[in-house]
Amino acid sequence: MQPSLPKITLTGLLTLTSVTTFAEVEPKSKSKGELTGNVALLNKYIYRGSEENDDVSLQIGFEYAHQSGLFIGYWGSNLNYNPAISDKSSGIENDLYMGYQKEVTEDLSFRSQLTVYVYSNAGNVYEDRDKRSTNGYELINTMTYKELTLGASVMLADASYANAGDVYVSAAHSYALPYDFSLNSSVGFSFNNDRRDDAVLTTSKTTTFTEARLGVSKDFAETGLQFTLDYIWGGKTRTGDNFDNYTVFGMNYSF
To answer: Which Pfam family is an annotated match for this chain, by its short name (predicted)?
Structure first.
């Protein structure tokens, strides 16, 4: 996650899900909990306007959700950079998270989770006498009403790409079309805390439009497969640089 937000990609405010590695364990009934999984193959990985991988990205995740509303999970992706080693052109992002979700009514639900971003060869980034960890900690909150999802995320500690107190807000909408197609749109803004700047990280703009997305997705009956196609309009970074525009397509398999 370079300077820019999950992450959860807005089109998903992403519900991270996963692989069944417990084949020898007796499956738990849905009345107690459920283990779900997701594998995705994308031509690029774009997160909150930032290009995390300009090549084919393999992403995988899993989540266990208990009937109480508590959940825990993992999500990972390959990257075209390593935040701890500047001259290395590859890396792995690992997101570990846990939280609570509740369905208030048939149409209204909310979800709150603490996410820890851990990178391969994790370490510190140094500049002059200042140093920052490449790992990050973020509280992500979403509320969904029918097809509309609103999100607000807060960084809890300084990292090499963000300041504690940075806030990211987003809105995503999905509209059902015939033949299992959906029209998806989203937008995100960053409110950057410049009071914790140092030699490692500086802020020129405290409020920035980060990205907007418009795309379509197609579900394939009961196979668990979904095709996605999005066009992304990039906004600006916290230093005022422009994000590029991208076309992202991929195939997801959920189980």
So the answer is: Gcw_chp
